[in-house]
């Protein structure tokens, strides 16, 4: 099985490293690392980018308010 591997911190935690170091796992998985920053190779990046722009737009519209501080 091939696994597309992004550069998320959670993918480098001890539990994941321990799992991937097991020979039976290494025999079954092939990791395909993405470059450190490759938004064009990861469609979810477009969604995150849109959400951040939308969030920033809402912040500008609402200004600083108590409810705004709790939401963002």
Can you give a write-up of this model?
With 72 residues, the chain is mainly alpha-helical. Helices cover 53% and strands 11% of the residues. It has 4 helices and 2 strands. It is elongated, with a radius of gyration of 19 Å. The N and C termini lie far apart (39 Å).
Topology diagram in text:
Layout: E1 2-5, H1 14-20, H2 23-28, E2 30-33, H3 44-62, H4 66-71
Parallel strand pairs: 1-2
List keywords for this structure.
72 residues; 2 domains; two-stranded parallel sheet; 4 helices; 2 strands; elongated
User: Could you tell me how far the N terminus lies from the C terminus, measured between alpha carbons in angstroms?
Assistant: 39 Å
Which segments are poorly predicted (pLDDT under 50) over 5 or more consecutive residues? Answer: none
Relative helix content: 40-55%
Characterize the biggest β-sheet: 2 strands, parallel
Query: Which strand-content bin applies to the residues?
Result: 5-15%
Count of helical segments? 4
Extended strand count: 2
Number of domains: 2
SSE series? EHHEHH
Task: Kindly name the structural category.
Answer: mainly alpha
Overall mean pLDDT stands at 80
In short:
The protein is mostly helical. It is 53% helix and 11% strand. It has 2 domains: 1-40, no CATH class; 42-72.
């Amino acid at each position: 099985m091939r696994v597309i591997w992004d550069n998320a911190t959670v993918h480098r935690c001890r539990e994941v490293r321990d799992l991937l170091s097991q020979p039976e796992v290494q025999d079954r998985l092939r990791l395909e690392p993405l470059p450190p920053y490759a938004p064009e190779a990861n469609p979810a990046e477009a969604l995150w980018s849109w959400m951040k722009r939308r969030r920033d737009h809402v912040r500008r519209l609402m200004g600083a308010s108590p409810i705004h501080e709790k939401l963002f």
